[in-house]
Amino acid sequence: GGGSAGGAAPGAKPGVEHKLEERLYSVLCCTVCLDLPKASVYQCTNGHLMCAGCFIHLLADARLKEEQATCPNCRCEISKSLCCRNLAVEKAVSELPSECGFCLKPFPRSILERHQKEDCQDRVTLCKYKRIGCPWQGPFHELTVHEGECGHPTKTGNELMEILDEMDQNHKKEMQLYNSIFNLLSFEKIGYTGTDFCSQTCHKKEVQFRPYRTDDFITRLYYETPRFTVLNQTWVLKARVNDSERNPNLSCKRTLSFQLILKSKVNSPMECSFLLLKGPYDDVKINPVIYHFAFTNENNETDYMPLPIIDSVECNKLLAAKNINLRLFIFQIQK
């Protein structure tokens, strides 16, 4: 017969044609990092693909440089309103094979995470006696043998007490934060910025940081909220990026710090504890930290304090947004 075997292109030499998956990698990869997206896939108005991390990073960089974000491929404008998810590409990528990081065998990306967490015999595991100080970690298929030979169950009471004392100290630090929050919730005077479900009525909203630029020759990005009322006092919050360094867009590490300012006059010092949390509709990860300050008419501004976001990725999420929406709690300390 004159047909080509196996559907290969006429004239193709054996071994020259790439596998279909390899050809798809180059078609479906992110145009910025050139890697296959691990989660959401966004596309510009001309169809060029960007993984979620690169898309957010482009928007954050544009905010820092006071420029319009553009697609690195075709230079068309990109924004959260102009770009959309490409669900077909997300589904196609999830079916492509990817190597397990432990056993190096290929699996469809849609089941790879479960395989690496639950099924892979080479996945890294910890000894069950870690709770009493065993430092062993190794492949899952060696776990049973190790636990049968582990010496920690035979340690003396004194040896175990030293390990448990160290664990208690770490646990105590974690509990201090939660106990402090529960203690603050028992205060008589508590104020917070709430949320608003209906734009027709005047309920409290979370504080909204809006972007501005300084008047310097080389302008710097900063954020400021409109004035808001909590505990019958008027307040403003300010925020800055990387403590106002000259070119934060050139830095991979991104941080935000904030300052709370009392705008109204007070008859006596107003001692407060306060903390910032994410708004109810945001997915940014913020670790709660309680700050303290005594506000007076002469000393009405706190120092800039770090906004306790967990890493630069979360910071980029905030910078990429049109505004930053957070929830502020203020607890007035009664003498």
List unreliable stretches of 5+ residues: 1-17, 195-204
Mean pLDDT across the residues is 84
Q: What series of H and E elements makes up the topology?
A: HEEHEHEEHEEHHEEEEEEEEEHE
The number of distinct helices, counting runs of at least 4 residues, comes to 7
Shape, per Cα inertia axes? flat
How much is the radius of gyration in Å?
Answer: 27 Å
Structural class: alpha+beta
Strand content: 15-25%
- The rounded distance between the terminal residues' Cα atoms is 98 Å
- Count the strands? 17
State the helicity in percent bands.
25-40%
Largest sheet: 10 strands, antiparallel
Would you mind describing this structure in some detail?
This protein is of the alpha+beta class and 335 residues long. Strand 11 and strand 12 form a beta hairpin. The radius of gyration is 27 Å and the shape is flat. The N and C termini lie far apart (98 Å).
Any chance you could write out the topology, listing elements then pairs?
Blueprint: H1 20-28, E1 41-43, E2 49-51, H2 52-65, E3 84-85, H3 87-95, E4 97-99, E5 106-108, H4 109-119, E6 124-126, E7 137-139, H5 143-149, H6 157-184, E8 189-192, E9 207-213, E10 221-224, E11 228-230, E12 233-241, E13 256-262, E14 270-278, E15 291-295, E16 305-306, H7 312-320, E17 324-332
Antiparallel strand pairs: 1-2, 1-3, 4-5, 6-7, 8-17, 9-10, 9-17, 10-12, 11-12, 12-13, 13-16, 14-15, 14-17
Helix pairs in contact: 2-7
List its traits.
single chain; 335 residues; alpha+beta; ten-stranded antiparallel beta sheet; three-stranded antiparallel beta sheet; 17 strands; flat; disordered N terminus
